[in-house]
Amino acid sequence: MRPSLLALMIFVPLAAACSVPPPPAEVVKVREEAPITAEACAKLGGALERAGMLGREMCIRPYADAGRTCRDDADCEGACWGEPGSFPNEAVTGRCQPTNSPFGCHAVITGGRAGPRICVD
Question: Alpha-carbon torsion 30, 35, 41, 46, what sign?
Fold first, then answer.
């Protein structure tokens, strides 16, 4: 083996190993909500309930327009959810989300059209 080829095989990996690593990616912290007391939740018109698969305690508040007919989220205090059996992109009307709980199966209605059905738990 030629000496220059041997040097290349030794020094190139060494040089790569000595290179400066890129700075770590910025860590984005998810906003954590402060725990709420039952009294504070009641003042907001809600009740503390365990919700979702993890059973996280949440202040579940009803929306004033719960169940009203809608065609878009803009028509509701919460989201506009499709009726069971609606198909994606089908022209439909929905009902305003009953509470601030995101859990359950529903299709979000946007511009009078059903989105894909999702289940959140």
Answer: positive
- Domains contained in the chain, number: 2
- Burial of residue 86, with CB atoms counted within 10 A of its CB: 0-12 exposed, 13-18 middle, 19 or more buried: buried
Of 62, 82, 101, which one is at a domain's C-terminal end? 62
Is 83 a residue whose pLDDT tops 80?
A: no
- The whole-angstrom separation of Cα 71 and Cα 94 is 6
Q: Which two tokens stand for residue 35?
A: 């725990």
**What's the CA gap between 23 and 52, in Å, rounded?**
37
pLDDT given at position 30: 46
Taking only the tens place, the pLDDT of each residue in 36-59 is 899 999 999 999 999 988 899 999
Q: Are residues 102 and 77 in the same domain?
A: yes
